[in-house]
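=== How it folds ===
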Amino acid sequence: MSNHSPLSNDSIAPSNPEAERQREGHRSRLARSVKRPAQFLSFWIAIALPFVHVPLLAQGLGTATATLTFLALLALNVVALYVGHGYNQER
């Protein structure tokens, strides 16, 4: 009697710590290369969005569309503030 499984595990590649480290290094470099431009863009969006709020508030929020637009822009501003808060800080 054999103790072998009827299913083959040939499709599972053996773990290679070096290959895993290289993949992690690529991910880390990609994250660093995207982080700075994302913070830059978010910072300046957070600066500019309040100027878009002013005409909406001056017009009034009497319609559902205007109110929804204002709330969406406000939420976008909060997200931009969060993402861009670390831009241009000393490291």
In short: The chain has a mean pLDDT of 82.
